[in-house]
Write a structure and sequence with these properties.
alpha+beta; 13 strands; single chain
Length: 527
Amino acid sequence: MSENKSDIIDLGAILRGYLSKWYYFVISVIVCVVIGFLFILRILPQYEVNARIRLDGEQGFSSMISGGLSGVTDLIGGGNANGEDEIEIMMSHTVLSDVVRRLGLEKTHLKRLRPTVYKLMYRDYPVDVIVGDDIQLDTLRTQLMFRVKVNKSGKANVALQGAGRELFSGSDLTFPAELKTDYGTFTVVTTDNFVPGVDFTNKIMLNSYGQAAENLREFINVGLADKNSQIVELQMFSSNVKYGIDVINAIIDEYLITTRGHQEAENKAIARFLDERINSVRENLDRTEIEMTSLREKNGLSSQTALTSEIAERLSETEKTMIYYQVNYEMAQLTLQMVRESAKDNSLIPLQGDNEAIAQLILSYNNCIMRRMSIESSAKPDNVAMQRLDEQILSLRKNLISTLETSVTRAEELKKEYENRFDKIRAELESMPKAEYELYSIMRQRTIEEELFIFLLKKQEETAMLLSNVDSQATIIDRAYSPNEDFSTSKLMVLLIAFCFGLVIPPVWFYVSKFICPGSLKSEVKE
């Protein structure tokens, strides 16, 4: 109890000591609030710009193909539009570089509002920089910063910095002002927004197209509305609403142009593929037609006989059955071998074939093996349960081997039977007149070529229609818009945080000072 009382008295003494130095808290709060106010002066309004587009999925050749030949799309492109892939295209360096060139974003114009505080200007800047013909922005490797300070008389002080050094400095220059540097010639000119008699200070940041595109990427957020959605949402925060809207819309437009160009190139490639394939199939059809006509005239044949067709059909069905029994025979042999080897180590047997009786025996055998494994680690060799399981496993194994031997024998008999049938039917077909057999082979190939030719002609017409009306892979749901709500840090919140820091700093300082300068502030916190 006395210890708790002492703690309370000490806490009260400390609090009274702090209160006796109230001016520390007042000074700390004032200083922190002033710093917070200075921070507020640097805060510029930030507005959100949003847009949404819907991916349309299948386009071009892939949307036309169905059925057995749909695998052709894997050879020439196409397929469903993947959301993540389309986002990668949308935010690709190529698309963003086109946006930079389209909007002139290689130059960033900033207007000085207060010391160290600059506001983004877009289309309303009073001065601009013209890049000389001797400068290639594609190969510019460093950012150039132009600082233009114009007085009321219309004269300008211009400084150019780049690569960590000053490249140009001039005073009382008149417009247009020509700047000759190691990088080339630049010209500072006035625009239609220039107002004589008004002094101002502007910064102009010049980047290569590629670097400007990469800088732009950092301010754009793109993602799917949800994991399974085909709706893509674009978002950007900017202090200049017009700038944000134009950038988002330009990204959408350039993406649509890019995908439309890809689709048109794909359709043209498809058209070339179809033309080549149709010509090849047509030549094959012409050749087989000539061969059939020649063979008929030479041997007096009018058409394929019904006998030939019936024999070929029986041969095909017999071949399928023969292969089925060959597989069953090999699987039964494999299973029998594995059961016999299982006697050495009591290993499990995988299910084989479609014989339900054998599958049930294998399942029972495996269950016994697994029960034995579960008690083997803790049971003694003379364990009664283990002995019973071993007897049961042995009995099942014998039964399974006997059943599999019967199955192997039966499968071998059926396999040989259908092999003999197949050989007889094939011999029967080959014993037919050679001319009739050749005619049958040619007509069978011609039927396949005709079906392929009709299919390709249909796809050629559909591709021609697509080429005349190429659509992109996306539909715009919402073009860029802004709710005009300021999303920057709340000024009241900044002041509140500054006030709280002002209250916290003095106690922290008193506590730390005890360790830094013991006894120096003893009188200040003494009761």
